[in-house]
Amino acid sequence: MPPSSYRSRLGRRRVTLSARLSIVAALVLCAAHVRAQSAAPSQTPQPSPQPAPPSHARVHQCAVEWQEKKKTGAAAGNTWREFAAECYARK
Questions:
Q1: Does 45 map to a domain?
Q2: Helix axis angle, 80-90 relative to 56-72, nearest 10°?
Q3: Is residue 72 a contact partner of residue 39, using CB atoms and an 8 Å limit?
Q4: What value does the mean pLDDT of the chain take?
Q5: Same domain (yes/no): 34, 61
Q6: Which helix (H) or strand (E) holds 19?
Q7: For residues 83 and 75, is the Cβ–Cβ distance under 8 A?
Q8: What is the C-alpha separation between 64 and 18, in angstroms, rounded?
Q9: CA nearest neighbour of 63 among 27, 50, 71, 47
Q10: Averaged pLDDT for residues 4-29
């Protein structure tokens, strides 16, 4: 063992085995906690699944209906988006 003056100049201390085991145990617990946090499902709300887009034929049929309603004036106050949402929902 070196003289005490030698140890104090370097500022080092001997770390006992029990202290080393305590440090290792703390690191293991910390790593386990991090893994558990990353594996846990997130608490953010998941967006609701959107319905499937309408088929090409359905879009065409709704577009034709919209043009007819615009010509007759029955579409007054409605927008295409509103009409299309209703039309697609009818199926």
A1: no
A2: 130
A3: no
A4: 80
A5: no
A6: helix 17-39
A7: yes
A8: 82
A9: 71
A10: 70
Task: Identify which has the larger pLDDT, 15 or 24.
Answer: 24
Asked, for residue 49, whether it belongs to a domain, the answer is: no
Q: What is the distance, to the nearest Å, from the Cα of residue 41 to the centroid of all Cα atoms in its chain?
A: 10
Number of Cβ within a 10 Å radius of residue 69: 14
Work out how many domains the chain is built from and give that number: 2
3: tokens are 């003289």
The amino acid present at 79, given as its one-letter code, is T
Tokens encoding 19? 């202290």
User: Is residue 82 over pLDDT 90?
Assistant: yes
Residue 1 has pLDDT above 90, yes or no: no
Q: State which residues form the domain around 8.
A: 4-39
What is the reported pLDDT for 81?
93
- Asked if the structure places residue 46 within a domain, the reply is no
Residue 47 included in any domain: no
